[in-house]
């Protein structure tokens, strides 16, 4: 068997024996602990590695939000245990300003990149792509393994940055220069910022390696009969996600490289005419806005990188559990495509108040509001999919419905923010916080939870405990609205983000009760997430065992594999596909798997 | 659909997607350059003469990697190994010429980095430097293939690794030509 070399930018990589060769036999080669669980090239194991790393990051990132909500909800109280834990960062039991900024910055970075990008699309792209398109493994198992290990390295660097003396990066997750470029400007812009940039560079390499693999696997390794239009919508969504990542992450990398130059080599890409603490800096001719363009050219597609996989999984889960075909399959694909294109054309709506030419802004307003069209198509199709369906309220289904609810609520406030005139009042307020947390943060988390509950039986051959799952769903669902709904009012009143204490601020201390309420709910919701984590790990070992190959009665190919599939997925030949994935409730039959040939009285789909 | 159509090798396809990705990075950098160029205190670039020689070198290396691939397909293994080693050598020469070219700025008293540096030259350094890293990646790939080709224990006549490396090599060549024209035109 030939080994091959491919080059991909920064390194030359060799891949040994293909994992996707059409073996007619089961893989029974001996696997050591190291090759099975650590340096695995099996897509299912890599997916689980992404998921569990993502869960650990989610606990850390979520805990950070509890800490700063503690400050926002109870600004006048002191908590001596915080000083015991964090020392000078919480001197006297109060979170210091530097610590607060570090917490919000790390909360954003961790949740956006490490949890909702790597933990979400890394997990489900890896687990689902080969299983749902009918392939033995990814196009390159080795690149796939590297993708996880680059993510792991990025995680190690980011985690290490939490423990350095001057603290982690703390200029906000968007790391705008000049603050992030000048070490003398703040503690968080010292070593922590370099760690942040190095970690993100590694992270970008990881997501590029992953994305390349996802794209070439979906386009090249589909089983016989699996045309693009017979793929489940999860595959389409993950495909577009990977395309977005491959085209936008390199631009962030270029922005980050220039920032590294400015920080460490004294260049002036982003710096001009700055005085820090009485010292006049020699830099001139730089443009801080340039960074924002480069950042948001990634940053906006990043929103869809987070959201699209959730949309795809929700489409699949809604259809399976309503026992009805997805409504408007091609419209769903088309709207994903439209969102993908628009994602690259709206970045400047994050920059309406940077002095952007209002004439230019008008175009970005128009393009931004255009996103409402494909979004509305999707919402309409989700609702019509479950309309008069024979709904089974499994935990996965509940989270999928919750996703649709949150996507509607959060999407509507996007129409407010997409207007450059309204944005003059609303930018940098809690209205923005509420908007993006609901539509991108919590909604994507719901998609992720839906996916975990739905595919857990495939991952581990056991079910998650449903009682804990229902508690998890209802508390999270109600809690999310209780946390973020009041923030809309605060934002409309002009309450700005990134402040540690509003109690001495005449305009906003009217909200102190509201802040306390939000913080309390946030703590409850966080506790319930820990219940989910417990359920997850408990069920891996002690959950109820799956006894049938196809527990949800679904059509897609992953349910034709054995309950605990080995490396190679199917013991015999890869099944051939004869129809699309959504023949539910057709011709008096509850479901017709994709592998079943089209009958004499049916027309092909 | 009844006949399995001839598909592109998945690793080759992956490379094409990777090329698209790398292109986006340089598109980001060169558009940043254009944005910056239209702002205050921009210095006209002076491109060192040495860059012309490095351009010729990398162009020549594209021709030699093409010859290496031809020879491999014709099973002329001696000539194949020769052209392969020459290509890797030209790649290294390109990198050396680039580095020497940048050192010449010091003699002209032009600062690339640090106090008194102008963004135009910093851009030249950052963009060419990133391109150089990509060339270095190609050189490593060629060296790995060359070591394998010179090994006596491992006989391998598959042309796919070299085809992939050659496509990448042509890409970094064309990328440099683009950057070179860009810098000369957009001074």
Counting copies of identical and different chains, the oligomeric state is: heterodimer
- Major sheet of chain B, described briefly? none
Specify the helix fraction band of chain B. Answer: over 70%
> Low-confidence runs of chain B (pLDDT<50, min 5 residues)?
none
For this structure, what is the CATH homologous superfamily of chain A?
Cytochrome c oxidase-like, subunit I domain
H and E string of chain B: HHHHH
The secondary structure category of chain B is mainly alpha
Characterization of the model:
- The complex is a heterodimer of chains A (about 600) and B (about 190).
- In chain A, β1 and β2 (about 10-15) form a beta hairpin.
- Chain A has a single domain, classed as Cytochrome c oxidase-like, subunit I domain (Cytochrome C Oxidase, Chain A).
- By secondary structure, chain A is mostly helical.
- In chain A, α4 (about 95-135) runs antiparallel to α7 (about 235-265) and α4 packs across α8.
- Chain A contains 16 helices and six strands.
- Chain A is globular and about 85 Å long.
- Chain A has helices at about 35-40, 45-75, 80-85, 95-135, 140-160, 190-220, 235-265, 290-320, 330-345, 360-370, 370-385, 395-415, 420-425, 430-460, 465-490, 510-540, and strands at about 5, 10-15, 275, 280, 585, 590.
- The longest helix of chain A has about 35 residues, at about 95-135.
- Chain A is about 60% helix and about 5% strand.
- Chain A starts with a strand and ends in a 14-residue tail after the last strand.
- Residues about 1-25 of chain A have low confidence and may be disordered.
- Chain B is mostly helical and about 190 residues long.
- The N and C termini of chain B lie far apart (about 55 Å).
- The model of chain B has no long low-confidence stretch (mean pLDDT about 90).
- The chains are: A mainly alpha (about 600), B mainly alpha (about 190).
